[in-house]
Amino acid sequence: MAYGSGKGEWLQKALAEDGIEPPEDALEPELLPEAVFYREAFTDLSGDRPLGAMGGAGPIPWSSIDRYAQRAEVEGDGFDRLKRMIRAMDRAYLEHMAAEIKKATDKTSAPDKGAAPHK
């Protein structure tokens, strides 16, 4: 899910050194120029999300989106669009993180099939 800013170049280079062609879904997609602002806003705002008592991430607060919009001089319909885009990316991120945590939890709580039964 996380691509970083290298457009997958590090992955392409590492795989090329091993003579492996990277799968298409492993490379960062090209963003439309107008989408770059929203991705950067999401990245900037991700640090504002609250953390729960158990370490889970919460949604980006509305107040953070509002402050970001004021700083970027985004108003009216532009603010509504920014809020919708941030909320959509945030939902996808939180769903992805919940799935990753569930996978990790399932792995650690699954009984070892090769273990001897307790007596």
At a glance:
This protein has helices at residues 9-17, 33-46, 62-71, 77-109. It has 119 residues and is mainly α. It has a domain at 31-99.
Can you put this structure into words, describing what you see?
- This protein is 55% helix and 0% strand.
- The longest helix is centred in the C-terminal third of the chain and has 33 residues.
- It has a domain of 69 residues.
- It has 119 residues and is mostly helical.
Low-confidence region ranges: none
Helix content: 55-70%
Radius of gyration: 20 Å
Q: Give the helix/strand class.
A: mainly alpha
Strand coverage percent: under 5%
Shape summary:
flat
Main beta-sheet strand count, sense and barrel state: none
Mean pLDDT: 82
Distance N terminus to C terminus? 44 Å
How would you spell out the order of helices and strands? HHHH
The counted number of beta strands is 0
Q: Determine the number of helices (DSSP H or I, runs of at least 4 residues).
A: 4
Secondary structure elements and pairings:
Layout: H1 9-17, H2 33-46, H3 62-71, H4 77-109
Helix pairs in contact: 2-4, 3-4
